[in-house]
Design brief:
With about 90 residues, the protein is of the alpha+beta class. The chain is about 45% helix and about 10% strand. The protein has a single domain (about 5-80), classed as Rossmann fold (3-Layer(aba) Sandwich). The longest helix has 14 residues, at about 70-80.
Length: about 90
């Protein structure tokens, strides 16, 4: 990933573009298909909305993103919801 891409995404997350987003509606529609334990990997997970939602359902979640700003936000979101994420 080019440094320009990282800078772009860091700027977007600093600007608060993530603030009101919850988990993806497609992911939520698949809730009945998801296991209640196990592991999940959230690639390009941004500020962690999907990762936190999965962790709240009992999965051990690792989230990855090019933006370190987004990952910091994901950790904050997880802590606020009482769950842990792997980064």
């Amino acid at each position: 990933m080019a440094q320009e891409d990282r800078a772009h995404w860091n700027a977007r997350y600093r600007a608060g573009d993530h603030a009101s987003r919850g988990p993806c509606s497609v992911l939520m529609s698949l809730a009945s298909w998801l296991p209640d334990h196990g592991r999940a990997l959230d690639v390009a997970g941004g500020a962690g909305a999907n990762a936190v939602w999965l962790a709240q359902r009992g999965l051990l979640v690792t989230v990855a993103d090019v933006s370190e700003v987004a990952l910091a936000l994901a950790v904050e979101r997880a802590a606020a919801q009482g769950v842990d994420l792997g980064i």
